[in-house]
Amino acid sequence: MLLITGFFCKKYGIFNDATVNAINKFIVFIGYPCLILGRLAVLDMDHSLFINFLLSLFINLGLLLLFGAYARLYSRGRRFPEEDKPDMEFSIMSPNNGFMGFPVAISFFGDIGLLYMIGSNVALNTMFFTYGSALMKRGREIEAESVPKKLKKLLISLAHPTICAAFVGILICYSRVELPGFAIEYLNIIGPIAPALAMISIGTMLAGGFGPHSFRKRIVMEPVLNRLLVTPLITFIVLWFLPIDPFMKTILIVSSTMPVAAFVPIISEQHGRNKSLAGETVVISTLFSMATIPFAIWILNNTGF
């Protein structure tokens, strides 16, 4: 219903592009950092939970690399323009486990679910500015970047407000530091606004950027189906054999069911790629995820995974 609310707000002019852009900035720079810090600051974190957070981060890094390898093999077998294949691969491997993953984690799995989803999002942000940047440059004669420049880009990606809030929150709860009451109250007022606003904002994407013709484009639909169906299946198979916390497995699988990350068209545009193609995969995968995410959660709840 929140997605549909966003759709109607954009469709009928209640929100314009400037409004949506302002809402997104509020969510990224204020809303989600307050939400994460507020939830983690009061979380009863012990050593095992801290280790599980780091484990979820590194497992998700491995899964993203696996998705990238699969996307590369898949694109090689398809007769699509070589210029568009990087966008296709990036769409397949990049789940929206932050902007959409956080509200889903909170709604269905609570604070511990949010903690593991944060680990997945830190991994994704790291991949965006390392492998993702290299992928967008593939096939072009671009001057190689120096190691210091690559390291600088990685540090910039890790300085993302939500990631900073995550590490500060973990440090606070792990060291048992108590924030002043007014600070907790402020965080608990601002933070819970963010998930609803994020879902409404994502809903605004459904009001434009695609049409009936988009569903007939194989170069759009194939990445969408791979993102929503194949990568969760790969995740399920890999995690089945790992001796880790079942709850963490559940969050990692749910993270893999997210639609194409909204950041993909932004990186595509920065590198002069096919932004419209990337945008269509985001919108259509988000539309389909309204069914696939609840279905995946229902399966996980009823199979005892």
Set out the fold topology.
Layout: H1 2-11, H2 17-41, H3 47-76, H4 85-93, H5 101-128, H6 131-136, H7 147-158, H8 161-174, H9 181-190, H10 193-205, H11 218-240, H12 246-256, H13 264-270, H14 275-303
Helix pairs in contact: 1-10, 2-8, 2-9, 2-10, 3-4, 3-5, 4-11, 5-10, 5-12, 11-12, 11-14, 13-14
What does this structure look like?
This protein has 305 residues and is an all-alpha fold. It has one domain (2-300): Na+/H+ antiporter like fold (Up-down Bundle), CATH 1.20.1530. Helix content is 74%, strand content 0%. The protein has 14 helices and no strands. It has helices spanning 2-11, 17-41, 47-76, 85-93, 101-128, 131-136, 147-158, 161-174, 181-190, 193-205, 218-240, 246-256, 264-270, 275-303. The protein is globular and about 55 Å long. The relative contact order is 0.18.
Which features does this protein show?
about 300 residues; mainly alpha; Na+/H+ antiporter like fold; globular
Task: Compose a concise summary of this entry.
The protein is mainly α.
Rg computed from alpha carbons, rounded to a whole number of angstroms: 19 Å
Give the biggest beta sheet: none
Number of strands: 0
Strand residue content: under 5%
Please name the CATH architecture. Up-down Bundle
Class inferred from helices and paired strands: mainly alpha
Order of helices and strands: HHHHHHHHHHHHHH
Uncertain parts: none
CATH topology: Na+/H+ antiporter like fold
Helical residue percent band? over 70%
Distance between the termini: 28 Å
* Global shape: globular
- Please, what is the average pLDDT? 85
The number of domains: 1
Which CATH class is shown?
Answer: Mainly Alpha
